[in-house]
Amino acid sequence: MKITEVLSRHGIVALIAALLLVPGSASSQSTANLTGTVTDASGAIVPAAAVVCTNQGTGLKHTALTNNEGIFRFPDLPIGVYDLTISHAGFSAANRQGIVLATGHSVDIPVALQIGQMTQSVEVTETSQEIQPTSSEIQTSVEKQSMQNLPLNGRNALQLVLLAPGAVATGGVNWQSANQGVAVNGNRGTDNGYLLDGVNYIDPHYGTAPVLPSPDALQEFTEKTSNFDASEVGSGANVQFTTRSGTNQIHGSLFEYVRNNVFDSKNYFSTSATPFKRNQFGGSLGGPIFKDKTFYFLSYQATRTVGGANPSVAIVPPASYLTGDFSSLSTLIIDPNTGAPFPGNKIPSSRFDQNMVTVLGFFPAANQSNGTYNSLPRSNLNDNQILGRIDHQLTSKDHLVARFFYDSYTFQEQTTALQNPYGNDAFKNRNAMISDTHTFSPNLILTGSFGYTDVGRQRSAAGLPFLPQGLPGVNVPVATLDALAAHQLSVSISGYSSFVSGTPITLTPKTFEYRTHVVWEHGAHLMRFGLDAVRYDEYAWDRSFQEGQWTFNGSRTSSAAYKNSGNAIADVLLGLPFQFAQHGTEAQNMYQTQIQPWIQDDWKALPHLTLNLGVRYAPWLPSVDRVAPQVGFEPGVQSTAAPNAPLGLVFSGDNGLPHAIFSRHMANVAPRVGFAWDIAGQGKTVVRGAYGIFFRPMPLNMQRFSGNTAAFRSLATSVSAPESFEDPYATVPGGSPFPWTPVTPAGLKTYVFNLPVTTSALIPHEGTSYVQEWNLTFERQLQYNMGFSLSYIGNRMIKGMDSTEANPAIYIPGKSTEANVNSRRPYAGLASVQSVRDFQLSNYNGFQVSLNRHTEKGLTLISNYTWSKCLDNDSNTTGSVSVINKFNVNADYARCDFNPEHIANISLVYDIPVITRFHGFADKALNHWQLTTITSLQSGLPFSVSSGVDNSLSGPTTNSGTNDLADRVPGVSTARPAGVSKLAEYFNTAAFTENALGTFGDSGRNSITGPGSWSSDVGLLKNFPITERFNFTFRAEAFNAPNHTNFGGPGTTFTSGSFGKIQTAGAPRVVQLSGRLTF
Length: 1079
Hints:
Blueprint: H1 3-21, E1 31-40, E2 50-55, E3 61-65, E4 71-78, E5 80-87, E6 93-101, E7 106-108, E8 111-113, E9 121-125, E10 138-143, H2 144-149, E11 167-169, E12 182-184, E13 193-196, E14 199-200, E15 218-226, E16 238-243, E17 251-260, E18 276-290, E19 294-307, E20 312-315, H3 319-322, H4 354-360, E21 372-375, E22 379-395, E23 398-413, E24 424-441, E25 444-460, E26 490-493, E27 499-500, E28 505-507, E29 510-522, E30 525-542, E31 549-552, H5 568-574, E32 579-581, E33 586-606, E34 609-617, E35 624-625, E36 631-633, E37 649-651, E38 669-678, E39 685-695, H6 700-703, E40 719-720, E41 757-762, E42 770-781, E43 787-805, E44 830-856, E45 859-872, E46 894-895, E47 902-911, H7 920-926, E48 929-938, E49 942-943, E50 967-968, E51 992-993, E52 1008-1009, E53 1013-1025, E54 1031-1039, E55 1070-1078
Parallel strand pairs: 1-7, 1-8, 6-9, 13-16, 26-31, 41-44
Antiparallel strand pairs: 1-4, 2-3, 2-5, 5-6, 10-15, 11-12, 13-14, 15-16, 17-18, 17-55, 18-19, 19-22, 20-21, 22-23, 23-24, 24-25, 25-28, 25-29, 26-27, 28-30, 29-30, 30-33, 31-32, 32-40, 33-34, 33-35, 34-38, 36-37, 38-39, 39-42, 42-43, 43-44, 44-45, 45-46, 45-47, 47-48, 48-53, 49-52, 50-51, 53-54, ...
């Protein structure tokens, strides 16, 4: 019998039953372990010593006895500050006070008892332990005071993830954080796990973190970045945010943070500061309901924002182009009627498409010397969030936690003068959890938790100033339409800003979760057995581009006979698009279940050596649509569910295909092994290392791509090189399919497909993506409680899932045109097939140096430097096709899009020393200052130089166009010419030319590195003690305090007027003021 059958039929069932049927429930897993060895003054072990562990905040006590090796353990303690009392007959009692436990830490406290009476005691105040001598994991922690005091723009705690070594923002981390990514150690931003009080807090549609609670509601942040144990999922970082709880003493805060553009500097490309106002206000309150037993905590934060954070930059054509005069352009403009250049490179006005003249008339005139149009975007945001938590000591053996978090915000933003891709966004996020920790005995504890997350989103479009259906002679029937989808269209112009109205969508992804695990201490073994069960549900209603998508890229005014010919604006003037597509409505109702048991043994094999041994069973069960069949692609196979479908287009149930199309993968076993060697046995010098396999989850937005097909969404046949802007369906058999009604599964039997079919599809029988990770770390505790570490981190990703074109047109010399692209595709009856398959691969190698110090004597420090190299053949995670060579995906193997070679971070919280001779007013005015800062530096990201035309003639992929690279000019360096400003020409543009006909370009993916960046955010805080318990803090914060200009990347499209030019810059210095009352 196969091992997979044993696991699936017997082992899994038995383990699930055992874990589910054990009485008691669960812990939030925001826990730590406290261990120690008790000896006498000579070093001899002391068994049967009584140990009492007391939480300073809540007064809750835990008891244990040392075993025959003199070892005591308190596993799964809630994070916080603890006191220890150790006693034994014939010895004086020993007290250890102020032991700080952070999430995931294992703190080891050696205790030497002195001979004396038990009524006598010896007290020692502990300092925080920088070195973890028993774990092979690499992690970074930030405690409550640092979270509240570090300068965080918009008070977004997700920015703290970037403080860890190897972490980089992949989409920008703004205050709302919706759909933003953070990549860690070469892993994708969708590979991270985000936990809030130990339960999943992820938007399963995008695989990223939703809006987090305010820093006032958070107790701690911990980020594990490499080789975490078998209890954790994912291959990227494991990020844990823990909310605050009540204590025996009432505590709370009131605050308001204010930003106003009157304090801000102007952007490099602006003449004045961008109008912007933001107010964030709220408070928190926590305390006891019943002393030492029941505690509450509440928090509220509101945010009101008006104005744009940065100016928008539109790349507009020169005024001469709009009149048809391209004489200043070295690129030739070819007359598509004659195949020869227009005389003088000027298009006569008699050839203009008057509707396109109307569209081009909405381009504003350039108002910057570099030819761009800078404007102040509209941006309005209203956000309200509340959090409530109850901690209750149910019995002496059960600790109960219940917590609810709700966030509601509406967001409206215009990113350029021409487009509003998001319109109005309305988010409603809910996350709730309940847990209980049951202690059977000091060495046997059962934990678990129930969690629920709902990340609802509704996005509408904002109308453009024109509607194609309102222009004379336009024959494009509107697809099924509702109020949210009004004016759903796009006019994309290669090399210039586009007219885009937005992509309205309704998403309701929900997560239901049950976690449980048992901790069993047995001799030198600390063993944990667990089960994670997660159910994802998502309803998605997509109404994108129901009034059409027109793409112009210069191909219609270019010719193979003339190198470097064509311009997108010229194509627009003639009304000749490169491609047209139109969408209907797509509704999907999907669910997915993941059940993963695991076992972990932390074995103290030798007094100074701990082995971390674990294994996780991670079967992958793909998502399933409750309503419609899903669509797959199997070349040469005739569908039986839809007999009229072209060969290769298959559906759920065809030839034994599962409903999900993707097969289940039941053999996913993920071992994790590691060691921690405490060289001298003093917890001061540790060498740790680990290796593990981590299976990667696939975001739901990738799995739902199969809905983009005729019959279910009726994405109209993509029209290559339509005859005109006005009638893109003129050459399509049967004309426009709209208006249109979705086909039922039963109707597939008789459905007649409009050929050739443009579709998105899943590839059956693909594998499960996984990552192999390894690390080796040296750590040393230095003076002043500083922790130094030097690490080598490596990983390798295999079978990553993303989209690629499965039906590219084959180039036939002398016989290939854009008009005959579909006839040259290898699979007849099919046009573009955007397929999801397991072709991605990557590898990462990095060296990291860290110097950290947790809060002690007024100084907290987190600093690190990373030098790394990340290589892959595709960095995309969104499902759009970014592959360049559609026939050979590995030809794109190069530097990862998102990973800079060098990253450095320094964060500091420093209590400026008090001058003791000051008293009274002088003390309040001149003492109690605090300085905080976050400084980040990174080298530039790589980028590719694109051709801007489809010279490969491989055909566009739906929604993705073409990705041809430019060719390199032999013998010409890419280095910027001497005496030329980097803004005018960041690299030598003369080193590139259009790719040769029938090729994908030879300049190479990510062959040039963009500008690096650095920024320093600084806060100055003044505390005004009111009474012993009340304190008022005034703070002034400056983000990008030096007002250093971080330039954006240059134009990368060869045919664009902005090619090689830098026309954007990051945020200038902005100032935030606040007042805060704490008690």
